[in-house]
Specification:
By secondary structure, this protein is of the alpha+beta class. It has helices spanning 5-18, 49-53, 81-116, 127-170, 189-202, 359-366, 372-375, 476-503, 517-531; strands spanning 32-37, 40-45, 78-79, 179-180, 226-230, 240-244, 247-253, 259-263, 277-279, 282-284, 291-292, 298-300, 313-314, 316-319, 322-325, 346-355, 391-393, 400-404, 408-413, 417-426, 429-430, 440-452, 455-464. Strands 16, 17, 18, 19, 20, 21, 22 and 23 form an eight-stranded antiparallel β-sheet that branches. Strands 6-7-8-13 form a four-stranded antiparallel β-sheet, with no helix packed on it. The chain has a four-stranded antiparallel β-sheet with strand order 9-10-11-12, with no helix packed on it. A hairpin with a 2-residue loop joins strand 20 (417-426) and strand 21 (429-430). It is found in: Plastid, Chloroplast.
Length: 542
């Protein structure tokens, strides 16, 4: 029938701590002041001074200046980015002020309930009078609670507007000439909503045109260190064949145990060298027995005199349990990136999977988490609810950030790596609002090596900061591989469909939205690289 004192205090404390609106309550029994400003009528609720004084320390929570007099004024019809944000912030401030008045109204109603039930006053009131007064107060409280639910929707809209404006500013989509404000200047939330609709309708969208058959890879994309295999897959007497930028290569270890990478084609008759064997640190062709060292020099030619023959080789190094090559013509950079899992994590699985899709399409997919509750319904996202709003929050200049509302941090690391840390409570379950709030974590590394225009070599490493005993369970690696392939197959059927339509001319980035931010930034980075820009976007030095 009435709102308890503890509940009232909880609402007040929450409103003060968060400075967010809670309700839009109107009371017919309390004294009101009607104000009209700019054609907008507001009913502000105020109690009697003596009743407010009863709240002692609480009263300061409601001593907030009416923000309507500070509504942002615009000169002309156009808003710049800063003014657009001010309009959105005004909505939040107005809702906060409105909420404080509504909470005060509920508290005053609570005081009236207490007064009606005061045993000292019962001697002067009949039971019928008390019942009537309580019924009236109950009706008013019911109306207040209904307004609370209405206000929740308004608050959600205001917050979405602010997030939307912030997105536009961060991505430089909001131009001075693009945001036409309403002809009728009004500080009401409803008018601000109409303004936002106008912005959305008239705002020119940032163009991304990824369509048509995949073009040959630009030489600038090759001038990076690329991880191509895990160290554990290359023994002293084994080879690892691979394709990189549509050229065949083969890895093997020399006499000193150091890795080498040479062209996977014999200089004699173009036989694939990986069909042969490794003898004393040299790779031997199975056709006529020619043998090559790690720098590509042919050191042995059985049944004929030794000619000066050398096949192409690439700079190759080993670091952090991975084998790296430099496929470009430019001079290799002096340092190799580090892809070690964070401190406290142990590696549990390392997998290599060949996929029949272009590596950029696979990166687009890995940099997108919003698709999970729709695509991965049989694997890790089974049972996930669909959030009302998914965002990727990141610095204005950066290729890393975190997902909201998912407790997942993510980074794109040029040229083709995706790193993510997922906060979990137990396998398959998410918890908390950020990775720092979670007690256990899973760290993932995806390397998307461009094998050819229609094929990607995926290197996947999974690490955990819990359950170290899993490393010692037999055949656990097969279980991880089975699960990874299940997840990839859910994605693969969709990405293959995209690739087919892209090759026929469809634009796979036709209409990017808020949660596409990291994927869009990857495409912008790659486009700038291929155009030869001296300063690449989102780099740490920019």
């Amino acid at each position: 029938m009435s709102l308890s004192a503890s509940n009232a205090m909880t609402i007040v404390a929450t409103a003060a701590a968060l400075s967010l609106p809670i309700s839009f309550c109107r009371s017919t029994k309390l004294s009101t002041r009607k104000g009209v400003k700019g054609g907008f009528r507001v009913f502000a609720v105020f109690g009697e001074q003596s009743e407010i004084e009863k709240k002692n320390g609480w009263s300061t929570l409601f001593d907030v200046e009416d923000p309507r007099s500070k509504f942002p004024q615009t000169k002309g019809k156009f808003l710049d980015a800063n003014l657009a944000l001010e309009v959105a912030r005004y909505d939040i401030q107005y809702c906060d002020w409105r909420a404080r008045q509504d909470v005060l109204a509920i508290m005053l109603l609570h005081e009236k309930v207490v007064d009606v039930l005061n045993p000292l006053a019962r001697d002067y009131k009949s039971i019928g009078t008390i019942k009537k007064e309580l019924a009236e107060l109950q009706e008013e409280l019911g109306q207040a609670h209904r307004q609370v639910h209405i206000s929740e929707a308004r608050v959600s809209t205001a917050l979405d507007k602010l997030a939307y404006m912030e997105e536009l500013v961060n991505d430089k989509l909001l131009q001075d000439r693009a945001t036409t404000y309403s002809e009728e200047a009004s500080p009401s939330p409803s008018t601000s909503t109409q303004s936002l609709d106008t912005v959305k309708r008239r705002l020119p969208r940032k163009g991304l045109n990824i369509s048509g058959p995949v073009q040959p890879y630009h030489p600038r994309l090759k001038n990076f260190w690329y991880p191509v295999a895990f160290s554990t897959d290359l023994k002293d007497d084994t080879m690892v064949p691979l394709d990189c930028f549509e050229e065949p290569w083969v890895l093997f270890r020399g006499k000193d145990g150091k890795p080498g990478c040479v062209q996977n084609t014999c200089a004699h008759r173009a036989c694939p060298l990986d069909l042969g064997s490794v003898n004393e640190g040299r790779i031997q062709c199975p056709y006529h027995g020619w043998e090559y060292s790690t720098d590509g020099t042919c050191e042995k030619m059985p049944s004929t005199r030794l000619h000066k023959v050398k096949i192409k080789s690439l700079p190759c190094f080993e670091k952090d349990g991975m084998l790296w090559i430099w496929p470009g013509d430019g001079p290799p950079s002096a340092t190799l990136p580090s892809l070690q899992p964070p401190s406290g994590f142990q590696i549990h699985a390392e997998l290599v999977i060949e996929l029949p899709v272009e590596h950029g399409l696979l990166l687009d997919n890995l940099l997108d988490l919003a698709h999970a509750p729709f695509t991965h319904t049989s694997t890790f996202a089974k049972g996930w609810s669909v959030p009302s709003f998914v965002k990727f929050l990141t610095p204005a200049s950066g290729l890393q950030g975190y997902w909201d509302p998912y407790p997942i941090d993510m980074e794109f690391r040029p040229p083709c790596m995706v790193l993510s840390t997922i906060g979990i409570s137990k396998p398959g379950k998410l918890e908390g609002q950020s990775t720092k709030q979670c007690t256990t974590h899973l760290h993932q590394l995806h390397v998307c090596l461009p094998s050819s225009r229609n094929k990607t070599r995926l290197l996947y490493r999974m690490s955990l900061d819990f359950a170290p005993v899993l490393k010692h369970i037999p055949f656990m690696n097969f279980l991880w591989r089975h699960f990874a392939e299940q997840v990839l197959n859910e994605d693969l059927r969709l990405v293959l469909g995209q690739q087919e339509r892209m090759n026929k001319g469809a634009n796979i980035w036709n209409w990017p939205v808020t949660y596409d931010k990291l994927g869009v930034r990857y495409r912008q980075w790659r486009d700038a690289l291929e155009r030869g820009e001296k300063q690449l976007p989102f780099s740490k030095s920019s």
